[in-house]
Amino acid sequence: MGLIVVLLIVGLSLALIKLWSSQPRSKVSKPYFSDPKNRKLQKRLLVLLNGDATTAERLLKQQRQNHQGQSDKWYLEKVIYDLERDRRY
């Protein structure tokens, strides 16, 4: 009886570890350009970059690394602000 309980606990523990390890560890939402919430900001960013989605993703990724924990809207606004600011000079 004791061996069955130990095996059951070990099996359950392994199942929980596997389940926990398969869960995403960050609060990353949908990719920027597939999330319809910020469609207007997404379009504005692509216009500023002449449709270069690769550059947009790179700039957004840099901001996400530099300022962790912000919303997707914040990152979009920050990249747009920086691009417009840099073009003034």
Automatic annotation (TrEMBL):
Name of protein: Uncharacterized protein
Provenance organism: Nostoc punctiforme (strain ATCC 29133 / PCC 73102)
Superkingdom of the organism of origin: Bacteria
